[in-house]
Amino acid sequence: MNTTLKSVSSALLDAPYQLNIWFDSFLWILGNFGNIGNVIIYSHRSYRQRAYGIYLLGEAISDFIYIDFLLLTRILQNGFQISITGHYNFICKIRQFDSVWNPLVSLTLFAFAIIDRILSVQRSNKYRQWSNRVKLSYKICIAIPLFWLVFFAHRLILYKIRNGSCNPLPGFYASFDSYVEAGFTALGVPLAMAILAFFLLRNIRNVTHGKVLPINNNQPVATTTRSNLQQIDSQVAFMLLLQIAISILTRIPYVAQVLYSNITQYWSKSELHIAIENTVIEFIRILSYVFFTTSFYVSIITNRRFRRQVKGLFKKKQVIDHTTQ
Question: Which CATH fold would you assign to the domain 2-324?
Fold first, then answer.
């Protein structure tokens, strides 16, 4: 009986490390291939002529940096027990800053891609003319990282290594920082995505059923069948909708975990309770990286145009290989 309990306890204690070694490593490899693929595809001229393509390119670059810094350091620290943020104050500050900055940059750019698609099928020309503003999209892609940089710059100053771990200054700031993170990266993200999903889903239905889409306020044009452009837009919308679903499903457990940790941080807990809690928390934290590693694969599954671009890349590579032989 005691031997069994000891074995279970050892397995529970080892579970967080194994999760970070195997699951994180799998996501890191998956994400690198996917984000490199996204950068290549969205760098294509046809996507750079569409505002949503610019936003998704910016998102892909942000995701690439995120997993190759934050996820990789997580694997080294939480999986292989190689202390990085506990020894180097500079990395401590940068990592804590990046843990909130990069995801919000990525998700905000993703949100602007959705907004662009929503605006593109509005009935009113006043709203529709704000879609596909390519020059504006470049400016927004610069403004968003700067905005979140200013908003979370306090982490670059007020986080320090204490007792071998990277923590915020104790007292008021620690509580303030914790609730800001919970509000923006936990509660704010699924709420914003749910609102965008509602409007995007409504637009998919409008395009699918061929609703009346006026060219201007005085000259409506009834569309009984979908044009090629509408079909492409509906595929993009469906692709974005599926990614929204992934972001919500992987963020809701994170919301629950952040709230639970804040509420129970001063509770008395048994060693078994702490071991189970640590395993669940590690799994939820790892799950929060799924959105940033899977967009390429979602695009391949849902978007025919995207698949053609990927196939075109392989065909070009085969042609180059044959000419160099």
Answer: Rhopdopsin 7-helix transmembrane proteins (1.20.1070)
